[in-house]
Amino acid sequence: MVVKYKVPFLAFLGAMIVMPCANTANIEAVLLGEFSPNRIDLTQMKPMAVLDLLKNNSNPRLTFTHRQMSLPRGWVEITKLDNACMYNKVKTPDREKLAIFSRYPITLYPPLRLIVRASDGQKYANEFDFSTLQPSDYKRYGVTVNRSYGRHLDEQISQQKDALFFRDGENSVGVMVEMLALNRIDGFVEYADTVNAHLQEGRIEFDFKAIPIKGVDKPLPGYFACSKSANGRALINTINEAMSQKAFQQSLIQIHDEFSSIDDKSLLTSELIALFGAESE
Which pLDDT tens digits describe the chain residue by residue (281 residues)? Predict the structure, then answer.
């Protein structure tokens, strides 16, 4: 059966540079990421809903403007600038050497899946095990360069490099979907809702199935990450203070609950409640 999803709160992937502002009550931030002029994420939610929450709950007040920048370039710039930040980043030991991460995640991603053609869905068991991959199987499964998929999958990918296809550059989701539709790859790792969001933009008609991946059954948190500098620490402190407020936490839970798919709604909401130490009604 082909999995159908409602688009959840996922992923504007970006970075930002904190700019000095004449009014000391404000911190102006330029968001850097891959986004279109009218849309900075892959959801159908109100644009920048969570960033609006930060602005409304922060002191000094955060303000944002935007600038286009690729994901790999963002990780380069964060080491060059003393006031750069990135948004929705998976926390890893290597990345913590480069940046300061926020205390709480700004978003939770549902578990990653192996995206395959719907017509091939019956070829897979209840879950896909990366550790069983062999180059001699003549299967091409795609992953994105410079992206973290969480500790478990990152380890699996590093051990299976010869059996995987690595995609570099912008719009990796769109490229992977097109390659899968043209039978150039056999599948790729992604959030099912992100794929569904791309398809809903009407660029391509394609039926897919999302296969659970062994060892990947919990939501993946995405954090703010800022430069290891005084300015970066000041911004992270402001973000942490805003996110520590009960009103912010309740609103963030509500956003995830409203825009997550039916399959992921309960999982994401309960995980956020646990992370914040809150109780739901």
Answer: 444 444 444 444 445 555 544 445 788 776 766 655 444 443 443 446 788 888 889 988 887 767 677 878 888 888 888 888 888 888 999 999 999 999 999 888 888 999 999 999 999 988 999 988 888 888 899 999 888 898 899 999 999 988 899 988 667 888 999 999 999 999 999 988 788 878 877 667 789 999 999 999 888 888 998 989 988 898 899 999 999 999 999 888 888 877 666 667 777 888 888 888 843 34
**Residue of 273, 141, 178 whose CA lies nearest to 219:** 273
Rounded Cα distance, 250 and 265, in Å: 15
Written as six digits, the tokens of 122 are 């019956």
